[in-house]
Predict the structure.
Amino acid sequence: MKSKPTPPLAIAVAALALLSGFAVQLQAADSKDEETIKEVMKSYHKAPKGTDPVCKKASNGQASKEELAKLVAGYRELCDTKPPKGDAASWKEKTKKLLAAAESLEKGTPGGLEAYKEAVNCKACHSTHKPE
Ligand code: HEC
């Protein structure tokens, strides 16, 4: 009996398995950044009803030293992520601005409040980088 050629179906299945493994890996890398971004948003830009989010306190000059230190740490992580949507260069510019502004708030550099209020513009960033 002649040896049978590998059935095309087996090749297709093998290729599919290979491809899907690859896709899962790609997704894992992306979703880690997404988790980080969502975590920073939830921790510093959003607050339970009736309380002010850290970003609001920071904009009013009312954030404590600890809150500002955490904010800076959060934005530092944000700077290391890739945006789920939009241009990477634009994301870098926006997140760096946020980090720099939060750092000047922490240090009490003059102009820090104005810089922060401008950098933390939710809509400007969401319209470019937040997926639907
Ligand atoms: C530098 C850019 C940037 C700024 C500034 C920004 N956001 Fe976001 N935000 C994002 C991105 C990107 C997402 C989408 C994350 C995802 O779904 O992967 C997001 C998502 C969110 C979410 C949803 C989180 C979740 O769990 O899905 C909330 C809430 C949020 N932002 C609140 C705010 C508020 C309030 C402000 C302004 C005070 C703000 N953000 C400013 C980039 C930004």
Summary: The two ends are 59 Å apart (CA to CA).
